[in-house]
């Protein structure tokens, strides 16, 4: 579904992403774990077209998007929920979510209903202002907004960051349900253990380099992984 090949990102000569190669299949969760500063956000921001890579290829569903702008990538089906979440404080939760909608109103309403099944809490706070929402509520709104455009790949940059454990459970639980419905998801996390548990494919990133992990193999050594990446 999504193939990133040999992608590099530099900031004024500092290489934050070094020749990263990663694939996301058409359904299920692929996670990318790594410590703060590893280069994860640089990679996904380059994927979404928010940061200009110094090299590499991005192909979605056979379509080369390497030179496409952010709007084209979003239309092609890459939806990024950024680390910052970007929920508008002056709009209600529901208005924020509707910002993501495209096309047919009735289809969008059906989509919204199916998203609320994943995150039932939304119904409780939907009329509250964006600036009155907790971190977890904001995260649910940001994910719901991204899903309103029916993306081919949903990219989540550290959705559990700064959330209380019980809220992390609700957010990751919704993401897991979404994957079971067939949604392709690229999940970025520092919270490596929780991410690995719900992922079918996994990569780890350190100092700008990506390595694929065979995390479902019985020989997978979590301690070794921890020393390197978490
Ligand atoms: N806009 C930027 N300008 C300069 N350096 C940056 C910028 N964004 C990130 N970096 C640097 O790039 C490296 C990777 O950062 P980032 O991609 O945010 O990692 P992660 O998301 O894994 O925490 C860090 O050393 C960070 O300081
Ligand atoms: Mg980051």
Automatic annotation (TrEMBL):
SUPFAM superfamilies: P-loop containing nucleoside triphosphate hydrolases. Keywords: Amino-acid transport, ATP-binding, Nucleotide-binding, Transport. Residues 2-230 form the ABC transporter domain. Belongs to the ABC transporter superfamily. SMART domains: AAA. InterPro entries: AAA+_ATPase, ABC_transporter-like_ATP-bd, ABC_transporter-like_CS, BCAA_Transport_ATP-bd_LivF, P-loop_NTPase. This is ABC transporter ATP-binding protein. GO terms for molecular function: ATP binding. Signal peptide: none annotated.
């Amino acid at each position: 579904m999504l193939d990133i090949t040999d992608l590099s990102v530099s900031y004024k000569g500092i290489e934050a992403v070094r020749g990263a190669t990663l694939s996301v299949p058409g359904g299920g969760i692929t996670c990318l774990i790594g410590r703060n500063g590893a280069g994860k956000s640089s990679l996904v921001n380059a994927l979404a077209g928010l940061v200009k890579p110094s090299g590499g290829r991005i192909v979605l569903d056979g379509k080369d998007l390497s030179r496409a702008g952010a709007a084209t990538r979003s239309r092609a089906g890459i939806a990024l929920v950024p680390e910052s979440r970007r929920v508008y404080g002056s709009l209600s939760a529901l208005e924020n979510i509707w910002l993501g909608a495209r096309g047919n109103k009735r289809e969008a309403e059906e989509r919204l209903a199916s998203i609320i099944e994943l995150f039932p809490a939304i119904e409780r706070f939907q009329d509250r202002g964006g600036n009155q929402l907790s971190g977890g509520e904001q995260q649910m709104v940001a994910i719901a907004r991204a899903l309103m455009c029916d993306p081919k790949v949903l990219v989540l940059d550290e959705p559990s960051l700064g959330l209380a454990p019980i809220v992390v459970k609700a957010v990751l639980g919704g993401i897991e349900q979404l994957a079971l419905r067939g949604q392709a998801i690229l999940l970025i996390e520092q919270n490596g253990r929780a991410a690995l548990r719900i992922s079918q494919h996994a990569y780890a990133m350190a100092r700008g380099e990506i390595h694929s992990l065979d995390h479902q193999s019985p020989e997978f050594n979590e301690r070794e992984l921890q020393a390197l990446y978490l």
